[in-house]
Each structure stands twice: as structure tokens, then as C-alpha cells.
Write a structure and sequence with these properties.
By secondary structure, the chain is of the alpha+beta class. It is built from 18 helices and 15 strands.
Length: 517
């Protein structure tokens, strides 16, 4: 049976750069008003103190990574948004033996652990925003000596992405079966005690093991992973290890090369780290096994420091386990700090230059496209808490990592056909073409600006001009566009969710159509 669809015309209500900037400033004002402590941080309090961070005592500054993997060596065309030819580095020493127990104690301090910890599954604890509570931990990642060493490894001058929120995101392997019957407070206190006392209170570092053979890497990468193939939320990450890796097997960071080869980089030894331009390189962290059953990795996000470089950042992977009010407040601050110099530069040129030639106009057009996309993403990535948390509570976190890629690849639609419960047209099933033209699709949040975004994108793709070229400089965006082009179909709202990294809306829209997860 052939189904005839009527496709309503969507008027172009695309927002101007100036209106987007105005909305960001309004959002910043609202978030600042909601902040519970606008006058600044609080004193540490009686009976508690943080160690003093001393780069000479706590940092290992002499040795740089032995190997640097360039985009060219990995067979990946260097993206236009890349800030260095370096895609990744081998591991290198970063912290001294004396610092390791202090790092673990700062990370797992019961005084604030309830504010920073999220239990992710049965064997993972995620800890975020420790830097907001521990001066030692904050300086450990933002001290000029640290940033200088990481910048040397990356081949570009870096700075932390945010003030505290992305300084030291920790993934902690812990078997919560030992905490059966405990309250959350008791569980966190138990984790903190077990992972900071006894042998964990003794200074020490270990050397990284060599990566396994390419055949072993291929075999391990083919297995199901807790976090699948992905791009990081931010341009650069430093991945550091604060656990004994001497008996660990696995744990490599695997990069997919341009020819689909897999390259495995050995996980860092205790006190060591690696750099990865993870916002632009698709990668996977392989699971590790250890007799000690202790694995703590700390990931800190950085961006290029130079003004006029607009980083490729999404919050797709982190909204599901973050304090969204705090995350969004720091997100808006950092994005405005990048946008405002660019806006001022455009305004100054218009005010002072008397005659514009074709080159001036072309440069301004390119700059406005980049600034507008940056401003638009700043707003769209802040999915309301009222949407994120109910979905997480019902569906769990894992689906959010898979939603975008499973939609783009089509894996989501494998299996028996699912009738569309939104339009209920006989014969209409949930698949990409139908989702694009379903007569009832505007039932989903009809006032959302994403409908205008979707229309604008369809025009940009049809014209295939400068704006399409600028958008395609980001690999995450290019991946979605290329797959869509190969399918020879109209651009739809779920495609727009995918290209903007909005997994929550993919899940919400599919559920509206009757898709069951």
C-alpha cells in the first residue's frame, strides 16, 4: 500500500545572531538569580582543611609523551574546528606518588560527596564538580604549571572549559553489591572509606602497561561496552589514572581511524595521563579487569585559549548525570566569554571601517555563521531539567548514549515493523521517512524553536553553500549529514535532534509515536 503524505510548509522563523545573544544573556541572568550562593564560596569551616597544592611536590613536570598521533597518521581528515594537528598522545607522568592519596581523599571526601556523586549502574560511581568544594583539587587541574604541560602535549595553548564543573570528572569502578541494604549516605561513606584507607593511603605510582595487540584490540572493541563509540562533550580531555594498574588487563582508549582500522592507546599508569582531542575523534574506552577491583580515572576538559576559536562542544553525554542548574550556569558563562569578543569585533568593524570590499563581506558572512551556530547550540544544549530527569528515571542513562547513533545508523528500527501511534494511518510504521513526514509530527512541542532550526537546516542543505560547508567542519555534524544524504530523503525533525546531539528529544519523540524502549 502506498501512503500519500501531505507535507505542511514550515515558514522560516530563523533567529538572528543578535536575538540569540540576547536570549543567552537573559538565560544567564535567570540562572544567576537561581544560584543559592551568589556572593561567592564559603570558608572551609572549623575542624576541616584542604592540603595546600604545591606543583613542585605534587606534579611530575619533566617528561612529555613519547608519541603523538596526528589526524594525518590516523587517516582522518583534520576537521576545520581542530585546534592542533595532534589527535591524541601516548601516556606521560603527571602526578607524583605523594599526590595520589591526596587526590583520592579530595575526590571522595564524605563532607561533600553526597553533592558530587552519582551511582551509575551496579559497578560505577561518577563524581563531578569536586573542584567547587576542594581548593586542592581545583588547583590540581587549573594551576598554570599543569595547564602549560598539557598544552605542550596537545600542541596548542589550552585553558579549562569551565570554572569547576568539568575539572576532574571521575569514573570510579566499585562493586555496590557490598553495600546491599545501606542508605545512600552509608553507601557513599563506605565507598570513601574503602578507597582512601589502608593501601590507598600510601603514596605510589605505577608504569603503564603496553597496549594489547591489534587483534586483541579488535576483539575487545567488538564486545558491548558501558559507554559505546562516542565523541567527547568538549574539544580536549586529559585522562588521568589514580589507581594501581600493574595487574590490569585492558582499559585502552581505542580510536577509529579513517580507514576503519582501530588504534589502541594503553591506559595510563597510576599518576600518569594522556591527552585526546576527543570532541573530534570517535573513540571507545575498553573495560579493564583487575584483581584489585579498583579503577579511578579522572577526565578534565580543556579548550583552545585563543580568542576567536569557537570550540565544538555538546553536552549530550553529560546531562543525564549532572547537576543541571550548576552545569548550565557554568556553560552559559563560558560560552558568553567566547561569544562576546567575536560580537564586539563585528560591531567595531561596522562602526569604524568606511568601505567594505568583497573580502570583508565574505569574512563577515563566515564569522556570523560561526557565531550564530555557536550561540544557537549554547541555548539548545540546555535541555530543561523537567525533561531530562523524568526520562532518566524511566529509561535509565544507557539509552541516552545510544539514541543518536542508533537513529542515524538505523539500528533503532531493526526488527518487526512498529505501527505509528501518532497519526494511526493504516500501514504507517515508525521509520525515518515516516518520522519526517508524519501528519501529526507537529504535535510534539509545537512552540519549540527546533522546528525553525529543522526548516533552516533543510534550506542550508538544499543550497549547499557556505553555511553547509561551515557546519560540516565538525565531524559529529558531518557524520549525520553524510548518512542523511546517502538515504535520499527529506530532512526531518528527528534528524535535527540528532545533528544537535539532543538524545532526550529523540527518545521523547519516538515514545510519542508509540515506540517502546
Amino acid at each position: 500500500m502506498t501512503i500519500q503524505y501531505r507535507t505542511p510548509e514550515m515558514p522560516n522563523h530563523g533567529e538572528s545572531l543578535e536575538s540569540l545573544i540576547h536570549k543567552i544573556r537573559q538565560t544567564k541572568h535567570i540562572l544567576d538569580m537561581q544560584f543559592s550562593n551568589p556572593t561567592g564560596g564559603r570558608p572551609l569551616g572549623a575542624g576541616w582543611s584542604d592540603p595546600t597544592f604545591d606543583p613542585k611536590l605534587h606534579l611530575s613536570l619533566d617528561q612529555q609523551p613519547e608519541s603523538k598521533y596526528t589526524f594525518e597518521e590516523l587517516g582522518i581528515q583534520q576537521p576545520g574546528s581542530a585546534t592542533s594537528a595532534v589527535a591524541a598522545t601516548s601516556t606521560f607522568p603527571l602526578f607524583t606518588p605523594e599526590s595520589i592519596p591526596l587526590i583520592r581523599k579530595a575526590l571522595l571526601n564524605p563532607r561533600y560527596l553526597d553533592e558530587t556523586a552519582a551511582i551509575f549502574g551496579s559497578k560505577t560511581l561518577i563524581v563531578r564538580n569536586t573542584a567547587a568544594y576542594s581548593p586542592f583539587f581545583r588547583r590540581m587541574w587549573s594551576h598554570p604549571s599543569v595547564v602549560h604541560k598539557l598544552s605542550q602535549a596537545a600542541g596548542v595553548s589550552l585553558e579549562p572549559v569551565m570554572e569547576t564543573m568539568e575539572l576532574g570528572h571521575a569514573n570510579i569502578q566499585f562493586d555496590f553489591a557490598s553495600c546491599a541494604g545501606m542508605t545512600r549516605e552509608e553507601t557513599l561513606n563506605n565507598v570513601a572509606h574503602q578507597l582512601t584507607s589502608g593501601r590507598f593511603a600510601i603514596p605510589g605510582t605505577t608504569q603503564a602497561k603496553d597496549s594489547r595487540s591489534s587483534g586483541e584490540i579488535d576483539k575487545a572493541a567488538a564486545k558491548k561496552s558501558l559507554i559505546p563509540w562516542h565523541f567527547d562533550s568538549y574539544p580536549w580531555v586529559c585522562v588521568a589514572m589514580v589507581s594501581d594498574t600493574s595487574d590490569m588487563v585492558g582499559g585502552e582508549t581505542v580510536i577509529r581511524c579513517g580507514d576503519n582500522r582501530l588504534v589502541g592507546i594503553a591506559q595510563p599508569g597510576m599518576g600518569s595521563a594522556m591527552m585526546l582531542q576527543g570532541g573530534l575523534v570517535k573513540h571507545l574506552a575498553l573495560p579493564a579487569t583487575s584483581l584489585l577491583d579498583d579503577r579511578i580515572t579522572i577526565v578534565t576538559s580543556y579548550r583552545a585559549k585563543a580568542i576567536g576559536i569557537y570550540d565544538s562542544s555538546f553536552m549530550s553525554n553529560i546531562r543525564v548525570y549532572s547537576d543541571l542548574q550548576e552545569l548550565y550556569r557554568q556553560w552559559v558563562d563560558y560560552r558568553l566569554n567566547r561569544l562576546e569578543p567575536g560580537i564586539k569585533s563585528l560591531q567595531d568593524k561596522r562602526r569604524h571601517v568606511k568601505t567594505f570590499d568583497e573580502q570583508d563581506l565574505q569574512e563577515e558572512a563566515e564569522e556570523r555563521i560561526v557565531l550564530k551556530e555557536y550561540a544557537k547550540r549554547t541555548l539548545r544544549q540546555m535541555v530543561p531539567e523537567s525533561i531530562v530527569h523524568p526520562l532518566v528515571d524511566r529509561l535509565g542513562c544507557a539509552l541516552f548514549y545510544d539514541a543518536r547513533d542508533d537513529y542515524v545508523s538505523g539500528i533503532l528500527f531493526e526488527g518487526p515493523p512498529r505501527p505509528c501511534q501518532l497519526c494511526k494511518i493504516p500501514g504507517a510504521v515508525i521509520e525515518k521517512v515516516h518520522l519526517t513526514v508524519c501528519l501529526e509530527r507537529y504535535t510534539w512541542r509545537p512552540d519549540s524553536p527546533l522546528w525553525s532550526d529543522c526548516y533552516d537546516t533543510s534550506i542550508v542543505l538544499k543550497e549547499n553553500g557556505l553555511e553547509a560547508q561551515k557546519r560540516m567542519e565538525e565531524l559529529q555534524v558531518k557524520e549525520v549529514f553524510n548518512k542523511w544524504k546517502s538515504e535520499c530523503r527529506p530532512w526531518g525533525i528527528v534528524d535535527e535532534f540528532a545533528v544537535q546531539g539532543l538524545g532526550e528529544y529523540i527518545l521523547e519523540f519516538l515514545e510519542l509515536c508509540g515506540f517502546e524502549f
